[in-house]
Design brief:
Order of helices and strands of chain A: HHEEHHHHHHHHHHHH
CATH architecture of chain A: Orthogonal Bundle
Strand content of chain A: under 5%
Structural class of chain B: alpha/beta
CATH class of the largest domain in chain B: Alpha Beta
Shape of chain A: globular
CATH topology of the largest domain in chain B: D-Maltodextrin-Binding Protein, domain 2
CATH superfamily of chain A: MetI-like
Oligomer: heterodimer
Number of domains of chain B: 2
Largest interface: A-B, 50 and 47 residues
CATH class of chain A: Mainly Alpha
CATH superfamily of the largest domain in chain B: Periplasmic binding protein-like II
CATH architecture of the largest domain in chain B: 3-Layer(aba) Sandwich
Number of domains of chain A: 1
Strand content of chain B: 5-15%
Number of strands of chain A: 2
Distance between the termini of chain A: 8 Å
Distance between the termini of chain B: 53 Å
Helix content of chain B: 25-40%
């Protein structure tokens, strides 16, 4: 399509292109003003010191923000480690969880539509409400989990979000529970796995695990790739649980990179420095996206060719 | 076509830049440019004229935080002003307390601050240093009584803002629980020593079998009633440092002395109430939940908290409560604080905003908040003139007069000192970093001394503004 559109062969094509561009203008304007211009501004701001007092007091500091961030900043290195640790658990957890749920929901179970809605529902709830709700389950003094552990089984209380070692896994678990969108996409993918392959394998005597591993998974690999990419990007940008629940604590054990950026910008009014944190997060996400794309060729099975 | 598209894109980008830059030309009408002495060089009377044409009613915005109780009382005060005043109309901008500083910070960055408002104490000196506050030195010109010195924000010794309310920390206790344990109530005038406090807390801590924490068979994993809660919301910990003979900052605000054995010991003693003595619940120190979720919830016998709780929360409890002075580690002391009423320098209506804030700061105009027990008066005469003290405290919103006078009014007058944010800048960042470093202390993963030693270098940097 792209090759052909360079040299439209006839008037009809030109007219079509014109309409297409006209229709694209609103979204392009949105993209420019709401995404690219702010992006450039953030990049530019990261070379300044600005205390956010009106539109005054910009001081050009060159790379100083980045140097400080990578050397003496008390939060940044920990926040990268915490974010990666959380993302690893949340991504792996939500991929496995949503694939299993999708496989179950793809079977001919009674009230299938109802169950599909139930598992998708968490994704539709406001994130802050979800985390506050989970906080009532996790709360060390009054939470339901601790009530069961302590009062029913007589075990000591567990600080799910108060213990530095448990807070990231506890928050990752909520993120896994929220992965309803991944389930829907997996379901759509499962329905496109050609029945003929599965039947042929069954005739050849393949058991259900072999059919899953050698047919379903390869056919689903583009979907898995897409979900993996989306889950990775979403989880690397995590901030809601820190804002709603933990304030980055205990200590710095849930101080995610986005939260560090938020703190510098909106609590300390160091907007230039916060912009540098944003750029670093952008680079971090970029690195992982490139790695994922680069490795995908070796494991992603594609039936079609390039357009 | 491609060329046309590219040109269109370029035009849009240039337009975007133009729109963006245009705003930067907007002058900040009244902002002081001298970052070192922000508040003293522009008397309010010489303020530039407002943008509004004469004769027209000017609408200004007043921002505040607070509980629904405070919202109700604040709106009532504004209604009174709006009814009395023929050239100013004040609109209320409500921002939740926990987002207050961050919201004001973003508004400041967008040149969109309200005309005036109450401010979080921890941002006042930074706002003043960055020229975001207008001069309010004329607020109490010609007044018969001045606000207490301990609640006046000073930058290099020069007043930059006055607290709109005074709030002291003291001890609340549940009289019914004391009765049930056959214990005498804490004396309102003579405070307990820390050890007496811990022992009393042990006698009031009960497990599911009804055994208290002094009993050898006491089960610390099955506590149903806690003896005490000493709020570890970070700023409140300063009072224990002072009580234990230490200081976070030198008295003149010129040095940060937080990494000292006295301060570490004071924090450790608070942490040990949960970790060692088993008389308190775990608290993460993230926010003020000391009163609502402890003593007011009915499962804690004694809790430290600010004076505002009398009006915002204790008037709803279904038990008899009393007030007493804070227990003493070495020195008898409490800290006082209160959000200041400020005019933001980004306002286009400086004279009107100043007029309103001056009006609002007069105690007869904010009496509703004082009478309900949410605010303590800022004027010294209410603490020294017994007739005025009666006018303030002798009403059903308060505990019995003699008790509150001894435990709160006289305590504040005799023993209170300023919270650090009255004379030390960057406290928002300082307290946030301190909070994060103290996290492992509350869980017992680090001692307070280890945490302070580890945090000291960066705390010093924040203190110096590096």
């Amino acid at each position: 399509m792209s090759k052909r559109s360079k040299k439209p062969r006839n008037a009809l094509m030109r007219a079509e292109n014109r309409t297409a561009y006209l229709c694209l203008i609103p979204s392009i304007i949105g993209l420019i003003f709401l995404t690219y211009v702010p992006l450039l501004e953030v990049f530019g701001l990261s070379f300044f010191s600005w205390k956010g007092n009106g539109f005054k007091g910009f001081t050009f500091v060159g790379l100083q923000n980045y140097v400080k961030l990578l050397t003496t900043d008390p939060y940044f290195k920990t926040s990268v480690a915490v974010t990666l640790y959380y993302t690893f658990m949340a991504v792996i957890g939500s991929m496995i969880y949503s694939l299993i749920i999708a496989l179950l929901l793809n079977r001919k179970i009674p009230a299938r539509g109802f169950w599909r809605a139930i598992f998708y529902l968490p994704y539709l709830l406001p994130a802050v409400a979800v985390y506050l709700g989970w906080n009532w389950l996790y709360n060390i003094n009054y939470g339901l989990f601790n009530f069961i552990l302590n009062r029913v089984f007589g075990l000591p209380r567990v600080g799910f979000v108060n213990d530095a070692k448990l807070v990231a896994p506890s928050l990752a678990l909520v993120s896994v529970w929220l992965a309803g969108n991944l389930i829907v996409i997996f379901l759509a993918g499962l329905q496109n796995v050609p029945k003929t392959y599965l039947e042929a394998a069954e005739v050849d005597g393949a058991n259900s695990w072999q059919r899953f591993w050698h047919i379903t998974v390869p056919c689903m690999s583009p979907i898995i790739f897409y979900n993996l990419l989306m889950a990775l990007i979403t989880n690397l940008q995590v901030i809601t649980p820190a804002l709603a629940l933990t304030k980055g604590g205990p200590g710095s054990s849930s101080r995610f990179v986005s939260y560090v950026m938020y703190q510098y910008a909106f609590e300390s009014r160091k907007f230039g420095y916060a912009a540098a944190v944003s750029v670093m997060l952008f680079i971090l996400i970029g690195i992982f996206t490139v790695i994922l794309f680069a490795t995908s060729k070796s494991w992603m099975f594609s039936q079609g060719g390039d357009d | 076509m491609k060329k046309l598209f590219a040109i269109l894109l370029c035009v849009l980008l240039v337009a975007a830049l133009f729109v963006g830059c245009n705003n930067t030309d907007k002058p900040a009408e009244t902002g002081s440019k001298d970052t070192n002495a922000p508040a003293t060089n522009a008397p309010a009377t010489n303020a530039p004229a407002t943008d509004a044409p004469s004769g027209e009613k000017v609408t200004i915005t007043y921002s505040y935080w607070g509980t629904p109780e405070e919202a109700r009382d604040t709106q009532a005060i504004l209604d009174k002003f709006n009814a009395e005043n023929d050239h100013i109309f004040v609109e209320l901008l409500a921002i939740p307390n926990e987002q207050y500083t961050t919201t004001l910070n973003s508004m400041a960055a967008g040149n969109q601050l309200p005309d005036c408002g109450i401010m979080n104490e921890n941002g006042v000196l930074d706002f003043a240093a960055d020229g975001l506050l207008a001069d309010v030195s004329s607020m109490y010109e010609g007044a018969s009584s001045m606000p207490l010195d301990s609640i006046t924000f000073k930058s290099n010794g020069v007043p930059v803002a006055y607290s709109g309310a005074n709030e002291a920390l003291f001890l609340y206790y549940n009289k019914d629980m004391f009765d049930a344990a056959n214990l005498a109530y804490p004396d309102a005038r003579t405070p307990m020593s820390w050890d007496e406090f811990v022992n009393t807390a042990k006698l009031l801590t009960l497990d599911a079998n009804g055994k208290n924490a002094t009993d050898p068979d006491f089960d610390p994993n099955n506590i149903v009633q806690y003896g005490c809660n000493v709020d570890n919301w970070t700023w409140q910990l300063e009072v224990w440092a002072l009580s234990n003979g230490g200081r976070w900052f030198s008295e003149d605000g010129s040095a940060c002395t937080i990494n000292s054995p006295e301060v570490a010991e004071s924090i450790q003693k608070v942490a040990d109430l949960y970790l060692v003595e088993h008389v308190a619940q775990y608290r993460d120190g993230l926010e003020d939940s000391g009163i609502q979720s402890t003593i007011a919830a009915g499962n804690v016998a004694m809790a430290t908290g600010g004076a505002w709780n009398v009006g915002t929360c204790m008037n709803t409890v279904e038990f008899n409560y009393g007030v007493a002075r804070l227990p003493v580690m070495k020195n008898e002391v409490t800290i006082v604080t209160g959000g200041p009423q400020v005019v933001f320098s980004q306002t286009k209506h400086l004279p009107e905003a100043l007029e309103f804030i001056r009006w609002y700061s007069q105690i007869e105009n904010n009496w509703g908040l004082v009478e309900s027990g949410i605010w303590m008066p800022t004027l010294e005469e209410y603490y020294t003139n017994e007739e005025l003290t009666h006018k303030w405290v002798d009403n059903p919103n308060f505990p019995p007069y003699d008790e509150y006078k001894a435990a709160v009014v006289d305590y504040t007058m005799e023993k209170s000192v300023s919270t650090c944010w009255y004379y030390v800048p960057h406290t928002n960042e300082f307290l946030e970093y301190l909070r994060s470093e103290l996290g492992p202390v509350w869980t017992g993963d680090k001692t307070a001394a280890e945490a302070l030693a580890g945090a000291d270098a960066h705390l010093q940097e924040i203190f110096k503004g590096e």
